[in-house]
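Continuing the batch. This is chain 6 of the set; chains 1 through 5 are on the previous pages. Same settings as before, nothing changed between runs. Recording input and output for traceability.
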Amino acid sequence: MTTTDVTAELDQRLFWRLIEISTALSGERNTSRLFERILDAAQDITHADGGTLYLIKEHEEGKPVLEFEILRNNSLKLRLGGTSGNPIQFPPLPLYRDDGTPNHNNIATHTALTKRMENIEDAYFAQHLDFSGTKAFDARSGYRSKSFLTVPLCNHADEIIGVLQLVNAKDPESGESVAFPKSIEPIIAALASSAAIALDNQILLQDHKDLLDAFIKVIAQAIDAKSAHTSAHCQRVPVLTELIAQAACETDEGPLQSFNLDESEWYELRVASWMHDCGKLATPDWVLDKATKLHLMLDGIDAVKTRFTAAMAQLEISFLRQIASQPAQTAVLQEVMEEELAALRDDCLFIEKANVGGEFMKPEDQARVKQIASRRWRDHLGMEQPILTDEEVKYLCIERGTLSYDERQKINDHMKVTIQMLESLPFPKNLKRVPEYAGGHHEKMDGTGFPRGLKREQMSWPARMMAIADIFEALTSSDRPYKAPMKISQALSILQRMRQQSHIDPDLYALFLSSRVWEKYARIYLRPEQLDISDPAAYF
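Output for chain 6:
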């Protein structure tokens, strides 16, 4: 075989290797692995002993710098950055000095500034660049940096996005450090072009992802701003959902043993859980922030207390007039007056307590509210009025919490708005299930939930997970104004009852208990006194 034939065969091998690498780069979705593939491919083609991949970043002061992303050296057995888990401690290289002049001393910054490839035969004899940092590294490590091939990475707009630097080409036969041959430059330039395209695509994808994440946080912040009582809910439901999902991925038994999420599916779940209550932006503030039963923009209990005060004052005046006209009956009248005043005070205190709301209001307490409403007082015109209006009686007799049926429906409407908002967004393919995940957390397994009345088999696992996370967070929250934060034992008792009533998924409930998601969450986010059990056996 002639020298020409050998050269042709070598060129063909490099050509197909370049095609292979370019194809691999275009299909890589993991950023760290993409960085490594770029550098590994360049070292493989050039037989380079070492290499570094830099990316252009903005420093704290807004000035561009070259940051180390991947650093490799075979002789020194160095593998830093990327998936290695070993951080790169070297500081970034500024493209401009403090006085604003370009930094052409360093070979990497010089390449970034000029956008031209640099092929240095021996760094120790290069006159136009400063290799003092390289020599200092060699002195510390006992290495000898000789040949350098530094290539700019430019995107489709001819903007510099990074620099690829290769060190010490090795002779395949002798293993000696040699200069990078001029013939390899077009191959590396082609590789750099493919790498830059793949890298730029990843950067654009990450920018879009960062924008979506920022948008999600803005929505969550807007919901937080609407109500201090539910602000932590938007942050904690994602935590609980991920804890349940992680337990599902780890289990090796039962119907969830084959459940798993890849990187893209984890991100889809996070987006959905952060956006699960976005429809609350359309919920009226006075409903969302209703701390008491009579709280309609302003707590109506003050008006009720004023009526009681007026009624007590009117009662005293009436008795004082009787005492003045019947002085012999003073003691008897005084005693009756004190009894009736005490009864009024007791009724007023009862109404104040009923106004706060709770998990359940007894029928006899509701009956007492209606009985108290029959009391009368005289208004400023001297007209006799009931001490409680019909509307106030209706609100004060709310059985659970502080919301009436109509107000509860207004709250429930946030799910319709959530689905409408999310379904109107042009989610990419990997996020298509966000509306289904986020929009199903108030559905029940028997089909009696809302807004669509879905049954268990119509819902995905993540949507069912989010339902349990939403309930458990609300039960154990310390921010709700109408109730004290529940202990874990109380919350699990309610979840157990909901499982028995086919409101939540039984398999996920069992996993929630057995994997101790409740405990992991409580130790981080709840008060110590809320974690009042260690064995969940009684709740299976």
